Amino acid sequence: MKALRLTFGALLLVSGIILTLLPGSILLVISGLVLLSYDWPRARGWLKISQKSMAYGAKKLDRFMLMRKLKKF
């Protein structure tokens, strides 16, 4: 089970990185890191870093959209 989880997690991570460079989704990277974080502590750290950066980006985008909406009035 561990080998299957590591293989599938690595496959998701690599395909997510490739699709992030092309127009794609970062969700594959996150799901790959989640699967890898069960067995690798370093993947847990990468997962925390990516979650923090995604939360920061979402807050920044929300702030930008709110300011844009308020300027119209």
Into which percent range does the helicity of residues fall?
Answer: over 70%
Report mean pLDDT, rounded to a whole number: 89
Taken from the alpha-carbon principal axes, the silhouette is elongated
> Can you summarize the main beta sheet?
none
Protein name: Tellurium resistance protein TerC
Organism: Alteromonas hispanica
Pfam families: PGPGW
Transmembrane segments: 6-38
Structural write-up:
With 73 residues, the protein is an all-alpha fold. The protein has one domain (2-71). It has 3 helices and no strands. The mean pLDDT is 89. Pfam families: PGPGW. The chain crosses the membrane at residues 6-38.
List the helices and strands and how they pair.
Layout: H1 2-21, H2 27-37, H3 41-71
Helix pairs in contact: 1-2, 2-3
Outline of the structure:
With 73 residues, the protein is an all-alpha fold. 85% of the residues lie in helices and 0% in strands.
Summarize this structure as a short list of keywords or feature phrases.
73 residues, single chain, 3 helices, elongated, mainly alpha
